[in-house]
From TrEMBL:
Keywords: Methyltransferase, Transferase. CDD domains: AdoMet_MTases. This is Class I SAM-dependent methyltransferase. It comes from the Bacteria.
Length: 221
């Protein structure tokens, strides 16, 4: 994509931001210590649902530097990761050389139909504005097998937050915003894509978090 190519969903800016901060992101968030036990209970439920079937191929969609891919792999999932940012993918490959990572967009996943038993979107839908959300869930559903599961983690609320400042202390001048979505909004998107909600977690913000956090588990029939 060149700078003259239309970029209606703002992915060029998102890619540039994560390319810029990738090394610090990987160093600062190497594992799941930022997740609350309740959040991880939902990830565990997802991993258990996926590994109870015949094959446990999981896509970590918006995998960043791969910390959640590692968490899923440790729970028996056969994980691949995909991310918009080639520098985040480079960090993932460096830190998790036994797993496969690919550069690609949630809105145009580089995989055939029915490829995965599970798709996890862990804080990766948050940089896509409302106009792009239906496409993300349509793509997650396309690559999911019948009976497969989708897990979505995100900050719960409405509107947008400028998160550029969070990276200034690492010396990065980037422009990055994240979108807040209500659990009902995400549930509607999931159902419009043909999935069925299994359960959801909504918990209050803790520690340095600015927003409540939500996790939805859904299934393809
Ligand atoms: C907040 S980070 C979360 C990364 C990882 N899931 C984790 O929990 O560490 C958001 C990630 O989503 C990726 N991302 C954002 N929009 C994307 C898109 N349209 N397609 C693929 N990846 C995207 C970013 O590049 C970034 O690595």
């Amino acid at each position: 994509m060149t700078s003259s190519t239309p970029d209606p969903l703002g992915f060029r800016r998102v890619r540039h931001a994560y390319d810029t901060v990738a090394e610090d992101y990987a160093a600062y968030l190497p594992d799941t210590r930022a997740e609350a036990p309740l959040d991880l209970a939902m990830v565990d439920a997802f991993a258990e649902a996926v590994t109870s079937g015949d094959d446990a191929q999981v896509l970590d969609a918006g995998c960043g530097a791969g910390r959640m891919s590692r968490y899923l792999a440790e729970r028996g999932c056969l994980v691949e990761g995909v991310d918009l940012s080639s520098s985040m993918v480079a960090m993932a490959r460096r830190d998790h050389p036994d797993l496969v990572f690919t550069v690609g967009s949630l809105t145009d996943l580089p995989y055939p139909d029915d490829r995965f038993a599970g798709v996890m979107l862990w804080y990766s839908i948050i940089h896509t504005p409302p106009a792009g959300q239906a496409r993300i869930f349509a793509e997650a559903t396309r690559v999911l097998r019948p009976g497969g599961h989708v897990l979505v983690g995100f900050q719960s609320g409405e509107g947008t937050r400028d998160v550029s400042g969070a990276y200034r202390r690492f010396g990065h001048e980037i422009q990055l915003e994240r979108h807040l979505y209500t659990p009902d909004h995400v549930a509607c998107q999931i159902e419009a894509a043909g999935l069925r909600e299994v359960c959801r977690l909504v918990r209050r913000a803790q520690g340095n978090e600015k927003d409540d956090q939500a996790v939805l588990l859904a299934k393809a029939d």
